[in-house]
Amino acid sequence: MPVRSSKFSLSAKGFTDVVDITSKVAEIVSSGTMDDGIATVFVPGSTAGVTTIEFESGAVRDLRDAVDRLFPRDIRYDHNERWGDGNGFSHVRAAVLGPSLTIPFSGKALLLGTWQQIVLVDFDNRPRRREVIVQVVG
Amino acid sequence: MPVRSSKFSLSAKGFTDVVDITSKVAEIVSSGTMDDGIATVFVPGSTAGVTTIEFESGAVRDLRDAVDRLFPRDIRYDHNERWGDGNGFSHVRAAVLGPSLTIPFSGKALLLGTWQQIVLVDFDNRPRRREVIVQVVG
Amino acid sequence: MPVRSSKFSLSAKGFTDVVDITSKVAEIVSSGTMDDGIATVFVPGSTAGVTTIEFESGAVRDLRDAVDRLFPRDIRYDHNERWGDGNGFSHVRAAVLGPSLTIPFSGKALLLGTWQQIVLVDFDNRPRRREVIVQVVG
Predict the structure, then answer these.
(1) A66-108 confidence digits (pLDDT tens)
(2) Rounded distance, CA C41 to CA C57, Å?
(3) Is the minimum CB–CB distance between A105 and chain B shorter than 8 Å?
(4) Which of B36, B59, B112 faces A5 most closely, judged by CB atoms?
(5) Per-residue pLDDT for A1 more than 80?
(6) What's the rounded Cα separation, in Å, for the pair A119 and A66?
(7) pLDDT by residue (tens digit) across B86-104?
(8) Which of A115, A13, A99 is CA-nearest to residue A64?
(9) Are B118 and B112 in contact, with CB atoms under 8 Å apart?
(10) CATH number at residue B76
């Protein structure tokens, strides 16, 4: 069966913490037996997402600012009224960004752009461990 | 060929109706012959999307409110001027959320978080039937 | 190995240029040997994204307007302060839309809706060539 399931964990700080996970994903792909295929990067949980960005502090800050501007922390969230955990903004942000990203690879190398990194974006309102699943199909 | 194509349909009300489809997708994966792989959940059509959220009424309401705030119904949409069907806001919302979600599974179980549900989000401006495609590769 | 890697290139104008790539992707799928599977459409680079939309000039304009409204060009971007290339807005927009889309196919035909087209959205601030990768697994 041409599927390999891997995972790793990391510490994230929440509040749109952007964590570069490119090398972790690339290592999983390069150490496997499949030359060509796709890698699905998935974060379990409903307060984080996965995407790509040029991972330099300016663009990361700009993403954080845009998220804060469009999905403010300090407006009323029904989730907070019901559950009291104060992370209603986190849930909305994560649902819009999405928890999954599928990246093609060839010759055991991810077909990313030179300035394109895979990132986990942690939207929660507290630091926590995150598990990331990488499902390689090829 | 390690691919199985399934589909199901559901009734959606439009106007950012968020429908929990987790059990439908999970049943397709658990009833198949593949132990490990990925399931791509896809909604045909240009006025709906797929993502994950903690499916409780507060977070669902918060997502709906955020979408209404960021992509208002009552501003000018060029699509409406041309076609008169009044769902210009639906098209923009669906394009941003995206129609596709790929979820890893292992041991015939989706690798979702405990509080993470798969949802179809119907952005149209009227009730309608929706077909959802689940393509399982493993 | 049931994987086929293809790519094509196109000219894009930037500034939320929306380019219909449906026929290119459909041709790759229909000319292959796999009947059923998934096609992952991926754009390398950190200033473009992939999604679906009803490709008519009204909806395309509406998407462009929404992007300009939500992620303005003329506010401060930290990326611009650091690198001087003036495309901070492009990076944020691309990170939110995402670079990847996975579409199921059956009988060598993409399972898209009738009015649903696959589009590359170029967010950069200048015209450029874009490469699009289509990884077919089935």
Answers:
(1) 999 999 999 999 999 998 899 999 999 999 999 999 999 999 9
(2) 23
(3) no
(4) B36
(5) no
(6) 16
(7) 999 999 999 999 999 999 9
(8) A13
(9) yes
(10) 2.60.120.460
How many contiguous H segments (helices) and E segments (strands) does chain B have?
4, 8
CB contacts < 8 A, A to B, total: 110
Distance CA B63, CA A78 (A): 10
d(CA C84, CA C63): 27
- Asked whether A138 and C3 are in contact (CB, 8 A), the reply is yes
Characterize B62-71 residue by residue with b for buried, 16 or more Cβ atoms within 10 angstroms of its Cβ, and e for exposed. Answer: bbbbbbeebb
The whole domain housing B87 covers 3-137
DSSP state string for chain A: --EEEEEEEEEE-SSSEEEE-HHHHHHHHHTSS-SSEEEEEE--SSSEEEEEE--SHHHHHHHHHHHHHHS-SSS--HHHHHH-SS-HHHHHHHHHH-SEEEEEEETTEE---TT-EEEEEE-SSS-EEEEEEEEEE-
Contacts of B81 in chain C (CB under 8 A): 58
Structural domain count of chain B: 1
Other beta carbons within 10 angstroms of residue B127's beta carbon come to 12
Q: Between chain B and chain C, how many beta carbons pairs sit less than 8 Å apart?
A: 109
